[in-house]
Description:
Helix content is 83%, strand content 0%. The chain has helices at 12-63, 71-110. The two termini are 25 Å apart.
Amino acid sequence: MASLFGFKTRSPERDRDTDRERLARLSAFLGEMADQIAAERSGLERRYREASTNAGFLADAMENEEVSAGSSHRLDAMTDDMLNYERRLAALSRQIGVVEDLRARAQALLD
Length: 111
């Protein structure tokens, strides 16, 4: 397409195609990120549930004096692990929120 000053510009259709391709790549990348974050969150939630269950059984056993008093260190470690799991799960939730926002913004550019 020729312009007023004698240089050629691309057609609007070609620009739209280029934008669509670029945003499709961005959307695919963000989808991969969302899948990775979801997989990490799923595994972490499973480990959190297991740790919580094990900590509950250990606490019950300690109350019933079925295990040694030294088990309190194990329970403290499990509690620390669960707090770390909760922090990481919160961070992953924030990341998913950002990725979802970016995906919505990219889609809005296509619309």
